[in-house]
Design goal:
The protein has about 300 residues and is mainly alpha-helical. It is globular.
Length: about 300
């Protein structure tokens, strides 16, 4: 599979969603309904299956640390920049941080890792870190700011894994992996069918949301803000990962894996989370499209320089 072919399905499905919404085939509530389907059903099924089948031993400690440093630095930078540079309210900032540093490790990461790196072993560890560390932080922040008084309620935060299907499915998947359990065949087949809808439905929802007219949107995405997010995602994150990898004395192959994974574009989960919580939806969907388009060039450059 060529590097270009890894991106083509994303562009096609996003365009299909946009065209279907433009022609009125899906109705006015298409993006919202599809987004909720992905968030509450398809994405939890996909995460549960992926994590329940993922071994929890043999992690690549130093490469994963380098990737984690780049993620923390860039998510934090995007979060802070949203408030200090663009005056976004506290409840809007987590989505900006996520757009800047949460990589598309699934539908784009897998074919790109296969093409550029030759295997997906390190990418699997990246998925685990994002799902079990970064995602809960983002969702806890979003949940906090959904509170009318903006307070951190310990009881509400403690119950978040039960109330949030993404976190609950992730924890159950890790528990099944640790215990060596597998769902019954009928349940596993049903979950497999449901999980297969996560990526295409998310992309169609993304395309449908792009067709909405500007007056219906809150928190419009400014061109300067999008440029900053794209620069953080496609330039700053791989550069920080490279610097951290050098400091940790990674081998050439490990350094390539870390930089390529850090340079993946913004995950469409950012748009799904923004839509679910009603914040940052406009900037999220545009960041996904923009970084996905530009990353074809930046990833090819990184592979050529380090490969």
């Amino acid at each position: 599979m060529s590097l270009v072919s890894a991106f083509v399905p994303i562009w096609i499905l996003t365009a299909v969603g946009w065209a279907a919404c433009r022609r009125g085939l899906l109705g006015e509530a298409a993006a919202s309904a599809l987004g909720r389907f992905v968030f509450h059903l398809a994405m939890p099924a996909a995460l549960f299956l992926a994590l329940s089948r993922m071994p929890l031993s043999g992690f690549a400690g130093r490469p994963l640390l380098a990737f984690g440093v780049s993620t923390a630095a860039v998510v934090g930078a995007g979060w802070v920049a949203a408030g200090r540079l663009f005056g976004r309210a506290p409840g809007e900032r987590p989505i900006r941080g996520m757009a800047a540093g949460y990589v598309n490790s699934a539908n784009l990461g897998i074919p790109i890792a296969t093409q550029v790196l030759g295997d997906v072993s390190f990418l699997a560890e990246v998925v685990l870190v994002q799902v079990l560390v970064v995602t809960p932080v983002i969702l806890v922040a979003l949940d906090r700011h959904r509170d009318p008084e903006g307070r951190v309620r310990v009881r509400r935060i403690a119950s978040l894994p039960v109330r949030n299907p993404v976190i609950l499915a992730s924890l159950l998947g890790v528990a099944c992996s640790a215990a060596g359990l597998r769902p019954p065949s009928a349940a596993g087949a049903s979950l497999t069918l449901l999980s297969g809808a996560a990526v295409p439905a998310a992309l169609v929802a993304l395309g449908a949301s792009l067709h909405r007219t500007a007056p219906t949107r809150t928190e419009p995405a400014e061109p300067t803000e999008l440029a900053v997010i794209a620069a953080l995602k496609l330039v700053a994150q791989p550069v920080v990962a490279y610097a951290a990898g050098l400091a940790l004395d990674l081998s050439a192959s490990q350094l390539l894996a870390v930089v390529v994974c850090a340079g993946l574009p913004t995950a469409q989960n950012t748009f799904i989370f923004g839509q679910e919580y009603g914040v940052g939806e406009a900037v999220a969907n545009r960041a996904v499209v923009l970084t996905t388009t530009l990353s074809l060039g930046t990833l090819a450059a990184a592979a050529a320089l380090l490969g």
